[in-house]
C-alpha cells in the first residue's frame, strides 16, 4: 500500500470523477486509475463501482475511507513535525534578559524548555532596559525578559510571567534581621548599598524622601553580584527583588510600608511573526509553573 495510492482514492472519493481526481493529484488519469486498481487488489475488494465515466463509492470503500484518511493525516502530521524540527535548528532564539532579573528561576524554565525542545538553539544576553527595547525594535532580539511597565504595554507585546516583592537584604547578625518584616521608616539612618541598575530605584528614593527616610549610600554599583557581596561583607543593607537574591548567607526580609512589587514579563515586538522556535518558546512560557 503506497501513500500515493491512498491519496488517489481519497481524491476520487471527493470528486467521484477520475479526471478531476487526477488533476488534483497532478498525475495523468491512467496513472491514477492504475493506482486505485492496485490498491483495490491489495485490499481484496473494490473501493468504487464504475458506471461508465461515473464512479460511486462501494459499501466497502465507504467503510475504508475514514481509515485511509487517518493514514494520510498521520503522515502529514509526521512530515510537518519533521519540517518544523529542521526549522527549529536553523532559526535560533535570541533572548535578552534585564540585568536585574534573578537567573535561578529563569534558568529552571530554560532548562525545561531545552529538554522538551532539544532541536532549538538558544542564546541569552544580559542588557539594560534601554538596550533591550532598542534591540527588540531593531530585530536583533526575538524576545526579552523585563519588568512590566505601562510603556512596554503600549509599545510592545507583553506576556506576564510572575510577580515578586522587593525585600530588604541584610548581612548576617544585622539587628533588623531579627524582625519578620521591615518598614521603610526602620531603615532611616542605616548604611545602604545602592543598586544603580534597579529600574525601580527612583521610585524607592522618592518614597524615602517623602517619608523623611535618610539613607547613607556606603557603596554603589550596577553589578548585582557586587551589591550582594558588599552587603554580605557588612557594608550595609540593600533593596532587592526577592528572586534576585542568590548569595548564600544573606538575610532577607519583606519590605512593608510601603510594599513594593514588580511584575516580570516576556516582551516581543507586535506584528512580528514568530518563527517555529519562538512558537515553541511561547507554548512553554504558557505551560510553565512560574513562582507565585
Automatic annotation (TrEMBL):
Keywords: DNA-binding, Transcription, Transcription regulation. Belongs to the LysR transcriptional regulatory family. Residues 1-58 form the HTH lysR-type domain. GO terms for molecular function: DNA binding; DNA-binding transcription factor activity. Pfam families: HTH_1, LysR_substrate. GO terms for cellular component: protein-DNA complex. SUPFAM superfamilies: Periplasmic binding protein-like II, Winged helix' DNA-binding domain. CDD domains: PBP2_LTTR_substrate (cd05466). PROSITE patterns: HTH_LYSR. Gene3D superfamilies: Periplasmic binding protein-like II, Winged helix-like DNA-binding domain superfamily/Winged helix DNA-binding domain. This is DNA-binding transcriptional regulator, LysR family. Coiled coil: none annotated.
